[in-house]
Backbone:
DNA sequence: TAAACATATGATTATTTGTTCATATGTATA
DNA sequence: TATACATATGAACAAATAATCATATGTTTA
């Protein structure tokens, strides 16, 4: 179907009013994309494992690599993504950099996710 | 580094005890993957838009396509993913199939996500 | 039962993304 | 200041994935 053809089928008029109403209530494009980007960050088991580790305490990069049995580089790349999403923060102590959870949203979101899959 | 080389660097012994402790507390592989898979489903703006629409009321596939200005096929593919993740359910009414939210975890998770990005 | 409508789905393609490798940056210490 | 250590990052490659197209399935009605 060509772009610009509004209807995907013939049933458009069935709930035209409902669609119009909903259309006005949808969040803006920016907000939707930001939200999807945020959840994308949770959508990788390496990053989930990092977040679980940080539930207990802050931890430095090489300990994380050891814990997850991954290269320092791979862990560092993922930490960068977590940091850009403001899910973790870091502090330097000498040669080492310690990462920790940025706030409690992380716990809540993961807890809700656990609730869901355990149902 | 070859697989089997445990250390990524020389600092392993610095927090060896911490790593061991954490290692015993990490969730199982299955749980971690299920969780990541779940959040992957939230990590797409099309699916987020579908979920937002379902916040208001159940809605049929072609109305969703109209609302999102997408093809029926694309919407249907995404609904399948949402359904496999048990985030939505459906019921047939005549020729049309209505989708609706499976439970309240969806709202909670998205609300927490919104909280986070709006900070 | 045939035709029209609504939805589902397999195959293909373009894009995104996680890991690896090599290397750069930053910090401490001899 | 030279060296070693800890972390960060760019490029490349393989794997995952969202939209499209064509078509199949399921339902209603003439």
Residues:
């Amino acid at each position: 179907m060509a772009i610009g053809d509004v209807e995907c089928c013939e049933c458009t008029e069935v709930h035209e009013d409902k669609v119009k109403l909903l259309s006005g209530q949808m969040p803006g494009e920016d907000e939707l994309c930001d939200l999807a980007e945020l959840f994308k960050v949770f959508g990788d088991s390496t990053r989930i494992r990092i977040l679980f580790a940080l539930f207990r305490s802050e931890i430095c990069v090489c300990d994380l690599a050891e814990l997850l049995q991954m290269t320092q580089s791979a862990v560092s790349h993922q930490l960068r993504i977590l940091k850009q999403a403001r899910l973790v923060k870091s502090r330097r102590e000498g040669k080492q950099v310690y990462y920790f959870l940025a706030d409690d949203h992380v716990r809540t979101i993961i807890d809700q996710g656990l609730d869901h899959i355990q149902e």
